Amino acid sequence: MLKLPKRRILQKKENFQTVYRYGKSYANRYLVLYVYPSDSLGGKVGFAAGKKLGNAVVRNRVKRLLRESYRLHQDQVRPGIALLLVGRRALVDEKCAVAQNAFLGLGKKAGIFLGRQG
């Protein structure tokens, strides 16, 4: 079972801002993926859901969906890149499988995965 250790999660506001400001963005209906090649932040990932999505319960659910999507496929992500996943309104009423497919689609488009997708 894959775990997502705390040391691999972006936690400081400055780090979020760096990935957001300098990273390349890829978007679909359900989420926005920011990709930032970095030595210092490489291998780290952040999850965000804005207040426009709803109350704290809704935002936390969206972040849980994003975290789970990343966790299941973290071993396929190339090292040396920092990621930021931002949930969109369409993800609020969806299941985990939809979030996973959205993440995989954007990841493939961004070229963040090693080798083949399985």
Short description:
By secondary structure, the protein is α+β, with helices and mostly antiparallel strands. The chain is built from three helices and four strands; from the N terminus they run H-E-E-E-H-E-H. The protein starts with 12 loop residues before the first helix and ends in an 8-residue tail after the last helix.
Would you kindly provide a written description of the structure presented here, covering whatever features stand out?
The protein is an alpha+beta fold. It has helices at 13-22, 56-73, 96-110, and strands spanning 24-27, 31-37, 45-48, 81-87. It has a single domain, classed as Ribosomal Protein S5, domain 2. 36% of the residues lie in helices and 19% in strands. A 4-stranded mixed β-sheet has the order 1-2-4-3, with helices on both faces. Helix 2 crosses helix 3 (96-110). The chain is globular, with a radius of gyration of 13 Å. The model has no long low-confidence stretch (mean pLDDT 93).
- Tally the structural domains: 1
> Helices and strands, in N-to-C order?
HEEEHEH
Based on secondary structure, the structural category is alpha+beta
> Largest beta sheet: what is the strand line-up?
1-2-4-3
Keywords:
globular; Ribosomal Protein S5, domain 2; 4-stranded mixed beta sheet; 3 helices; 118 residues; alpha+beta; 19% strand; 36% helix
Chain-wise SSE layout:
Blueprint: H1 13-22, E1 24-27, E2 31-37, E3 45-48, H2 56-73, E4 81-87, H3 96-110
Parallel strand pairs: 3-4
Antiparallel strand pairs: 1-2, 2-4
Helix pairs in contact: 2-3
